[in-house]
Amino acid sequence: MSRSASVARTHSPIAPILLAAAGALVTAAIAVTASRGLVQTPVAVAFGLFIAVGELVRITLPGEREAAPIGAAGALAYALLPTVGTDPALHSALQVVAVTAVGMTAGLLPHALAGRAPMIDYPARRVLTIGFAALLFRPIYLGDHPAFLDHGVALTGFIVFVAVVTALTDALLAAAVRTSRVGSPLGATFVNEIHALAGISSAIGATGVLIAVATGVMGLWAIPILSIPLLLAQFSFRRYSAIRSTYLQTIRALSRVTEVGGYTEAGHAERVARLAGAVGRELGMNDAELLDLEYAALMHDIGQLSLTDPIPGGATVVLSGPEQRRIAELGAEVIRQAKVLDSVAYIVERQSDAFRRRAGQPDPSLPLASRIIRTVNAYDDLASGLTDPAGHARALERLRLSAVSELDPRVVESLSRILDRRAAFV
């Protein structure tokens, strides 16, 4: 796991709140279910086992997003279950929460024992969103529901509606957690979560709805049979994540060429990439933009390989504008040889451009990623080797002075806030 991911796992003010809310809901659900006894025990056990198996084969999606598609679909299906064969499903919303919690615990326990415990917001969000779906559907279905819900099409439509609202609720909770970690705008983060989870969430929702509706015809056989497509999709997501991780590791290895050749200090590219990513998240960049930013930050100094004599310490901040621009253009040309990283090459090419043009107005064509890399790179060049807080403060003050024309003031202030937050946890 990267250091940035570790920081994200550690400091999330809202995650303990979600955990406390989920814990209170689970406690109440188990207490009530235990006092009343399980309703339709074979059905509850079947769905509980399915959820547990789903948690055993959970995956990690890009952006450090943990997911258990099979388990999530099973829990959603149990919450929205109208009938089992010819019999109505009579379990309550609290029993849904209790079965989901027990199944999740059983499935996550082996991971925890192996040292792969999930982030604390992951099980909390799952319990809260499934509880929300069950509270929306089960009281209406089991109570004096409107007559139109007795018709199959209307009932299916209501089930789909609840599944969609549940997915949006989960995305909102995920956005709230991510916002509390990195200080990004909630609205932009919510939209990013929807885009990031659209594929897997739609597959989970569709499978959950299909199982819930088909169980009335197929009985409990609907659970394993209808989960096969989602299982195949999960393997595809796992393969995609593995390929993306390998690709990123390759670029990280290539970024060290300048360090090995003595052109930049050890760890410079990683530090710039880590800080640039934090700034990008705070400024509301989406996952695709953040990935391009990380690639560009890792390779932003690749153009220095064209220099006959290395710059002392690799600090391009001391060079003149034309020299910085030449290095950026040469680096971009190297990256373009990959044929698939044109957007990254453009970011690297523009990293040396001033934020304001000669007329004193911001350059609208200058990518935010380029502005971030220029600012963070300058900070790392200026603060490299400094251990006292005063030295870091002086480096930031120099950046603020440069923000009059060269740097984006919004990026400089975002970097300052991130450094202040990190200093508070040291």
Question: Describe it for me?
Answer:
By secondary structure, the protein is mainly alpha-helical. It folds into two domains: 3-242; 256-424, Hypothetical protein af1432. It has helices at 3-10, 14-36, 41-56, 69-79, 93-113, 121-142, 152-182, 186-218, 222-226, 228-255, 257-260, 268-282, 287-298, 321-336, 342-350, 368-383, 389-402, 409-424, and strands spanning 59-61, 65-67, 83-84, 87-88. Strands 1-2 form a two-stranded antiparallel ribbon. A two-stranded antiparallel sheet has the order 3-4. The model is unreliable at 1-10 (pLDDT under 50).
**Which percent bin holds the helix content?**
over 70%
Structural class: mainly alpha
Number of strands: 4
User: SSE order in H/E notation?
Assistant: HHHEEHEEHHHHHHHHHHHHHH
Overall domain count: 2
Strand order of the largest sheet: 1-2
Which descriptors apply to this entry?
about 425 residues, Hypothetical protein af1432, 2 domains, two-stranded antiparallel ribbon, two-stranded antiparallel sheet, 4 strands
